[in-house]
Amino acid sequence: xxxxxxxxxxxxxxxxxxxxxxxxxxxxxxxxxxxxxxxxxxxxxxxxxxxxxxxxxxxxxxxxxxxxxxxxxxxxxxxxxxxxxxxxxxxxxxxxxxxxxxxxxxxxxxxxxxxxxxxxxxxxxxxxxxxxxxxxxxxxxxxxxxxxxxxxxxxxxxxxxxxxxxxxxxxxxxxxxxxxxxxxxxxxxxxxxxxxxxxxxxxxxxxxxxxxxxxxxxxxxxxxxxxxxxxxxxxxxxxxxxxxxxxxxxxxxxxxxxxxxxxxxxxxxxxxxxxxxxxxxxxxxxxxxxx
Length: 291
Prior knowledge:
Layout: E1 2-5, H1 11-19, E2 37-43, E3 46-52, H2 62-76, E4 81-86, H3 96-102, E5 109-114, H4 121-135, E6 140-141, H5 150-160, H6 178-193, E7 203-210, E8 216-224, H7 227-234, H8 239-256, E9 260-268, H9 276-281
Parallel strand pairs: 1-3, 1-4, 4-5, 5-6, 8-9
Antiparallel strand pairs: 2-3, 7-8
């Protein structure tokens, strides 16, 4: 099933709450998730394969178009769609073209009002009225922060899923590579440390991952668009990149459960967010038809 919604609705936080551990990176800023993140929740005799998706947004450059394409692809490929709304922001509802895609085939849609612990009753009633109009049902009220309503939402998802054998071993939480999650944790650290512009201009690619080494050696390249951004990331006398490395290493060590030597390098890749060749080089999906 797919977690869908506008940027900053809390989709990644919902995934992490379902899994009981952090898998998808989170930030108070919108558009943190750039690629689909696969999470596997196996318990109580059922297995749910979640796909956390980038926020559905109005695009301004090629990276955002690739993000939107990833969300729409996930929408078409699942048995259940959970459409997440920010209960604090009653004006954050999708445009009609997005709604028509949501209702485009027989896959059921579960509207969800997230962040109910922060919203007023008036805000909740306004969004419930909107979901009744669009989907014929009040949105389920949940909070990824407190856990309120999460069991009800999970039960509803299980009811709608078709019966089948488990697709993954019961102890797996994702089928994506460790390298992917390492690069995501470095990006999360960048969102925590730098101002508005820098995190959105950083792409991370793991170049070397020495399994069996002690500590585990990881070399990663951070790509920025301009030399001035490189200077900001590195900082005076390397203070910035050291702080980033320390913060990212702590996240990676917690995720992997082992000591890590994290070797970060910063490189300039001009206009990478707007260059389809650069996007492919960095691992983002892109189709020629979108050019």
